[in-house]
Amino acid sequence: MKYNFNELKEIAKSKMSLKRFTHTLGVVEMAEKLAKIYNADIEKCKVAALLHDICKEMDIEYIKNICKNNFMNELSEEDLENNEILHGFAGAYYVKNELGVDDKEILSAIKYHTVGAKNMTLVEKIVYIADAIEYGRNYPSVVTIREETFKNLNRGILMEIEHKEKYLESIGKKSHPNTEKLKKELLKKEELKTVNKII
């Protein structure tokens, strides 16, 4: 193993509330399970899952400054007001520069774990969906999405995006452009016109 998982685990624990750390361990467990199902790199999946929320509870101005100085080619002014988006981008920067994790796939999995991206790798997809379906999650459709993900990763992700879109619509918001691109790409790959063909 290239990275000392237990050391990173202690660091993650020190940066998170108990609730956040419990969720994180759930994401690690789910990411490992999916990595075994889909023959992905288990170490990369576990490390990215462990560190995906490392910046979630850090000072918002600190996170904003990281993003302003490093990611404005990918983020909008609107994004800068949304910690749900920013903490992934800031997390990738923090993990590389403060923790010395330099694997590009791990970093991009952390970066895009909330909004997704086009042409996601297997590791990136696994961390993205593991965050949404770890066993601590209990929203209404999570069991259905989880079961589909165990059978077909792309379709599980599409169902999760559909669920997220409905939630955002209910609070008067739209999906992030990255998520829209990911949805369009996966629908094409799965030869579907709409997610309703799965459900």
Automatic annotation (TrEMBL):
Kindly give the InterPro entries that the UniProt entry links to this protein. Diverse_Catalytic_Enzymes, HD/PDEase_dom, HD_domain, HDIG_dom, YqeK
Supply the alphabetized keyword list: Hydrolase, Iron, Metal-binding, Nucleotide-binding
Q: Which GO terms describe its molecular function?
A: bis(5'-nucleosyl)-tetraphosphatase (symmetrical) activity; metal ion binding; nucleotide binding
The reactions it catalyses are: P(1),P(4)-bis(5'-adenosyl) tetraphosphate + H2O = 2 ADP + 2 H(+)
Gene3D superfamilies membership: Hypothetical protein af1432 (1.10.3210.10)
Specify the enzyme's EC class, one word. hydrolase
Record has Ribosomal protein as a keyword: no
UniProt domain HD: residue ranges = 20-136
Note the PROSITE patterns from the entry. HD
UniProt-listed Enzyme Commission number(s):
3.6.1.41
Q: Which NCBIfam families match?
A: bis(5'-nucleosyl)-tetraphosphatase (symmetrical) YqeK, HDIG
Name-wise, this protein is: bis(5'-nucleosyl)-tetraphosphatase (symmetrical)
Q: What organism is this sequence from?
A: Fusobacterium nucleatum subsp. polymorphum
